[in-house]
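cron nightly-structures :: item 1 of 1
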Amino acid sequence: MRLFYTLLTVIAVCTLGQAQSVIGQENAPTVGDSWSLFFLSVPSAQFPVPEVGTFMAYDFTAVGDLIDEDFEIPIKDVPLDSLSRIDILAIPTGTDEPAFDSLPETAVRSSFVFPELDDDGNEFALSDVLDVTEEGVFLLAESDFDFSTGEIEILIERLEAPEQIFTFGQMLGDTARSTEITVEDNIEFGTQDSTYYTETRVYAGFGSLKTWFAEYEEVVVYKTFSEFRYYNRDLGTDDPFTIASVQLSVTYDFIRPGSFAPVVCYSYDTFDRDGLTPPDNVNFRVAVPTNLTDITNVNTDRFRLSVSPNPANERVTVAFEHAVAGPANLSLFNAAGQEVLHRDLGELPAGNHQLPLEFSTKLPAGTYFLRLSDGVATSAAPLIIK
């Protein structure tokens, strides 16, 4: 889940005539945020290694036209509720989980939810604990699968010390490096195994980004080069470690203002230390927002807001309950947080309402958020435009 731990905000800095984006707190994980995730392998010849620099225009709209092998339909038409997702949640209270004890008030959970349900019909998820400070974002606890009992269980382990996974204040060209060395006895194979992991992350560029569901005027591009070296020697000896294998990988994260998860992640393993020669296929992960609190900021039960049909084309019906008479307004935001439609509903009587809403101009296909407000409270509902 650490691929999601990249944050940014946008402030005005002049570099070569372009506004440069700088790492900050606006993209900190916020309780209520959620993204549906596409994972796919695509031909590198069709989607070459991104060029990065002071300002580039990135276009990944063609990814949405690829056929999903499970649904046998274009990726852009796959129902979002059938995908894995990332949810930012509050820390639960009153549990017997030691990892949740004595956490700072600013801690949140980053939960990776699998699309499959467990045997009891409940969602299956891995949750990490994050904390956001003035310096950056820290990992406090992480979860993983445990198969030691013969059944799949999830363990959450508290780190001995907070691990800083990103630093605020970074600018173009800034580089962060980390190294981790482990040594453990492998009784089953009679060896002592050691891993040497290094990660170099550089703020490599910025620009604009287009996807099939939204267009973003500003994104930051981070390039991460990771190297795993595996060593071993016979258990109980002082022989030198011998290298068993080396794995190199390159990741490009495209992050937009106001979103914790990167919009697009492009990654591949490589034998080229410069990372310029990808294999025949590369990995894409695309995060489609299903709720962003900087857009919705809602009390979802206030109006019992719903919209149908969903997905839709040119018109929808918005249904809601207005508890007391008074003014209300309706807005539609795209996934980039831009308001694309606004309706002043005037004074409404108390009661249930159904409002037909027709789009005068064809909206690009993608994820939108319908927001209803009466000046006191706000509710929101996602809307998919085909």
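cron nightly-structures :: done
The two ends are 30 Å apart (CA to CA).
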